[in-house]
């Protein structure tokens, strides 16, 4: 009897629930649910959520491709610099930083682990105490120094480290430029920013060639070990056996270790939604002079970036006779050639060489160890005050570098396969 009464108690609620369900289904059927137009309107209200659910939003590729594309001008761009040095380079690095400084840009400075601790502490103190740097907040020092070996993969690792820092700290820069303490600008930042304002933001200025020549046998095929990967003291790379054959899965390129990289390409190398940058990083981990080939090989083996390549490093470098392994140290005798080259930068220079004073006086109009003047200086000849960072005062250098960039970009457009 008890179980029969319990069953009777559930009959009425069950009938009511069934009737309600039938009513709702009939109503929905009569209304036809929602029209396709209404559905599209809902998607338009919530594009980021619903649209991503229609694709593979669980994969990194979808998230990366949803990042806002870089602007194509004519707004004033921003540069992100790495300026690196080693033992004894503190004063050279500081002078280069002052000559390059502009409040619109971002800067990462690095003295490697071979530098004495007192030099690294002094650099950190100068960055921390400089009133302009403190006010603007766009200069950062890599306080945990990296070991960097000349000709080894640790130079590539250090460059990628700086790129990652800049991507993490600032999301609004357009080009990454790597320089050493032995480099120096030949034009003001106002000149350079003005020239690049009219360029597409995806262009990469990378000197490159697939014609390896003697480098195929002396650099690509030997296997090397970089002690900087596992030691705290700097030592030169050393060779191991056996040798290897040239790769068949990708094509090798070589070129200059100095470049101007567009942010989309830097993101491609750092974020790694494709495995190519990591594969090549592993390949170049035992490659002689990997700084002269890693980025060139990545960009020229990634079809989406091949059309963005401009074959230039924007440097004036006076090389020795072939095989062009070591650049000459520039002096006053090279001033005319530097100006005629219309390059943005030159290397390499000795510390406080008279030619640097000549560049300061005649090309940068910089004096008394101050910053290079520009529209941001708010009328102060020593640039001790920050005005509008977007106000530019381009000088004669803008015409020189503008002609060079125009020729380079035009040549890249005419050459549909920029990687050859």
What can be said about this structure in brief?
This protein has 420 residues and is an alpha/beta fold.
Q: Can you characterise this structure?
A:
The chain has 420 residues and is α/β, with parallel strands linked by helices. The chain has one domain (79-414): Alpha-Beta Complex (Spore Coat Polysaccharide Biosynthesis Protein SpsA, Chain A), CATH 3.90.550. Helices cover 42% and strands 11% of the residues. It has 16 helices and 14 strands. The protein has helices at residues 2-31, 36-45, 47-54, 60-65, 90-100, 117-129, 131-136, 154-169, 189-196, 214-220, 263-271, 276-283, 294-301, 335-341, 354-364, 396-414, and strands at 79-85, 106-111, 139-141, 175-180, 184-185, 204-205, 208-209, 223-225, 238-240, 254-255, 260-262, 309-310, 315-317, 345-347. The strands form five sheets. The chain has a five-stranded mixed β-sheet with strand order 3-2-1-4-11, with helices on both faces. Strands 5-14-13 form a three-stranded mixed β-sheet. It is globular, with a radius of gyration of 29 Å. It starts with a helix and ends in a 6-residue tail after the last helix.
